[in-house]
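Final report, closing paragraph on structural work. Over the funding period we assembled a curated collection of sequence-structure pairs, and we close with a single example.
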Amino acid sequence: METRYNNLEADAGPSESDESFEMSTGVDFYLRDGQGNGNSDSGRSLSNNCNPMHGDMATEYASAPPSHDERTVVSTHSTKGTGTDERPMKRIRLQHAHDSSLHRACCRSDVTVDDLAQLLLQDPSSVTRQVRLVSPKMVFNPFTYKVEQRVVAEPFKYALNLAIHHGASFDVIEMLMIADPSVLLKCDGLQCESSLLILLKRSPSSCMKVDLLLQQDPRCASLTDRHQNTALHVACFSGASMEVISHLCCIHRAAIGMRDFHGRTPLQVAQNRISSCSDEIVQFLWSMSG
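Its predicted structure, as stored:
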């Protein structure tokens, strides 16, 4: 296998599986055979080389300085006795992650309002942008049974959602939310989650933060993720407090009868998670669904 780099213009869009691969490697990767399919041996070989568990190709690109440049990898192969076949077998676009000082800062749990204020003055539009960040992290390698440092992608692309995910303070979340309230109604990450769903997974019992988002835009309580989980489903699954459950029911009472991808109502989720959901919550949902 021989790999060459050509400055070719990308001529096809990413396939539906791009994002899932991107989240595991931190780089854009998709086969460019006109149909988005990678069935040839050469395609599988390159895919394995990009897998963080099979080599350092992904790490090499992800850890490079951020750039807007795109390069197309053209794979050629040689046949014994015939020389090298110069026809492109597969085209793969590798795009460096865009960087943002604001998004980097939101990945720290100790970021302050003063820090964000300076960054927003330098780049006010960064709060509205989706940025693909990659960072070195310690992860478990199932092949070597060791914890190793790998360059992996952050799970979310909006600054507000990154701050929520990394446990930012109430004031930081409020500042980012006021800077761009529209983010509350947008989906983010592999699971297509809203800011409220991310918060309920990260801090299910933080009623002040939940109320902050609900008061800013109550419509966020009616949003679902890709598995049709409402905010009430997520709250019951994550073991939210009775106060949070009651506030969600008050804002979006219709969620009590809604079913997720598996056909479960929030009451059924709470009954299955009896270790994290108290009897008080189960009885409350039972009375509300009657």
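The mean pLDDT is 76. The longest helix spans residues 279-289. We thank the funder for supporting this effort.
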